[in-house]
Amino acid sequence: MIVVQIGRLAEQLGVHRNTIRNWIRSGRLPARRVPGKRYLVDEEEFIKLCHAYGLDASALQIRRVSAASSPLSEAEENWDAETVLIPRSQGPRLLVQGVSVCLTCGSCAGVCPIAGVDDWDPRKVVRMAVLGLEEDLVAASWPWKCTLCAKCEQACPMGVDITGLIMAVRAARERDKVPGALHKGVVTMMETGNNLGIPREDFVACCEAVAQELAEEECPGFQVPLDVKGARLLVTVNSKEPFAEPRGMKHWWKIFYAAGESWTIPTENWDGVQWGAYTGDDEAVRLGVGRIVEAMHRLQVEELLLPECGHAYYAVRMALNRWYAEESRRFRVLTLFDLLKDYIDKGRIQLRAQPFPVTATYHDPCHVTRKSAKAFGKAYDKEAREIVRRCCAEFVEMVPNREDAYCCGAGGGLAALPFHEERVFHGRHKAHQIRRTGAALVVTSCHNCRDQILKSLRKEYDLSVEVKLLWELVAEALIVPPNARQGEII
Ligand code: SF4
Ligand code: SF4
After folding, report:
1. Residues whose CB is less than 8 angstroms from the CB of residue 460 and which lie 6 or more positions away in sequence, other chains included
2. How does residue 48 score in pLDDT terms, banded at 50, 70 and 90?
3. Is position 344 within any domain?
4. Same domain? 330 vs 401
């Protein structure tokens, strides 16, 4: 077996890195994702493919490993290792090894929605890192205005890890100088288990009150299964819901009820959101995700569902790969797309035929499409479209879409940062795309994206559209069977 890194391999072979990704995705190049943004590839298959494309594999410097041995050392598993060296105690320093290949071509700046804000752009960030201007980088506010959407990386012909560099810059800042509420949320999460500091008893009371409402309205006998040992699914929650939108929790609960699912929510450390992944606080992310791992083991659950937010899914999965590879082999991480598709395909839930007589469009969150494709080898873009088409009279695409989609403008922690004007400016592409579709309904699958479009872009860009989360759409389209009941607990 050989270990390859897409950007480097593309550079060595003289092809675009998307070409290599396409080989892997299509199965033409059988490869297994391993930590550190690398792939394990069968050497013979690789050489065959190079021959088929007239490429010279013998000229490559490749690293061979035994298939039976651990593919990467601990140091190599650190995905930031090539870009970052941070101990804040030693002052801000960035190791620029991974960015020195920059050609200064400007492709990154050309696609960045906030290029020009403050006279900055991603190329400038990369060049400053190469030139050793770490202190200026760390002091600047622009790296905090970036949504980490990764459009720039997608465009970069050299595979420069631009978002990794921006995270390194953020991580190098003194914690008391982190802008806005982000660091406060991180500290609160470390102290209480969720970033809004909701006490256990309040969370339990809130869940029980919402469950009672749901039982009275649509799901007779419904009870919220808290801390249930041996359930099939452990479901995390976005703290925004019990704090400000508790009725939003009913959508998933109603779906679980109709599907007869066996599921549970832990009453402590239930928050899937990891704001440390926005501030570059590895210690906090490791702690937060470690608590989820601990809950999986304590409650003996087989599958983890991170249903509430593209960010939570991405941050938790990255952290599992990085720090809990061994422990997380004992359970499976499900996306909301896997689960909903499975329910529909297996007939576990029934939807009314096109209950929404409107034209709808779908907004692809960066974390589950472009970033998921790069980090985990799969973009979730088909499943949501199938569901929206099923529920709505007409479906129309925004252009560009899927892995090429524009960020809504609220990623990277921007929703909790004091850069309102920049967030709205960033969202202009999304607003124009939505308007051009003529759709009356925008569906998405991330809380952050939903809030940005619903609560900000609609007002700022005068859009007359409804906005729904994918699981909200499903819950509203659901036929709740009269004989539905809670899933059986083993
Ligand atoms: S991640 Fe997005 S916002 Fe940040 S520099 Fe790249 S393109 Fe610009
Ligand atoms: S796209 Fe890549 S190579 Fe070109 S300027 Fe940006 S970082 Fe450098």
Report:
1. 424, 427, 431
2. confident
3. no
4. no
Same domain, 357 and 470: yes
State residue 53's pLDDT score. Answer: 63
Least confident of 57-61, 246-250, 480-484: 57-61
Longest dimension (CA), the chain: 69
Which atom in ligand 1 lies closest to the alpha carbon of residue 407? 2
Residue 292 counted as domain residue: yes
CB contact burial 407-418 (16+ within 10 A = b; e otherwise):
bbbbbbbbbbbe
- Do residues 12 and 60 make contact, with C-beta atoms less than 8 angstroms apart? yes
- What's the Cα-to-Cα distance from 77 to each of 117, 165, 177, 191, rounded to whole Å? 35, 17, 29, 28
The proportion of the chain whose per-residue pLDDT surpasses 90, expressed as a percent, equals 73
Closest C-alpha among 131, 135, 138, 130 to residue 166: 138
d(C-alpha 98, C-alpha 328), whole Å: 29
Of 439 and 310, more confident = 439
Each residue's pLDDT tens digit, 169-199: 999 999 999 999 999 999 999 999 999 999 9
Ligand 2-lining residues (CB < 6 angstroms):
102-108, 122-123, 126, 155-158, 160, 162
3-state secondary structure of 197: coil
Strands 356-362 and 392-395: parallel
Q: Are 110 and 116 in contact (CB under 8 A)?
A: no
Query: Which of 120, 161, 163, 423 should be mutated for ligand 1, with most atoms under 8 A from CB?
Result: 163
Q: For residue 115, which atom of ligand 1 is closest to its CA?
A: 8
Q: Whose CA is nearest to atom 2 of ligand 1?
A: 149
Residue 114 Cβ inside 6 Å of ligand 1? The answer reads yes
Q: Is the pLDDT of residue 70 over 50?
A: no
Query: Do 192 and 317 have their domain in common?
Result: yes
Q: From the CB of residue 342, how many other CB atoms can be counted at a distance below 10 Å?
A: 14
Strand order in the sheet with 38-41: 31-34, 38-41, 2-4, 63-64
Rounded CA gap, 2 and 205, in Å? Answer: 53
| Token pair recorded at residue 51 | 């021959």
Ligand 1 centre to CA of 122 (Å) is: 7
112 pocket-lining for ligand 1 (C-beta < 6 Å): yes
Answer yes or no: do 217 and 315 share one domain. Answer: yes
d(CA 239, CA 245): 9
Residue 391 has pLDDT above 60, yes or no: yes
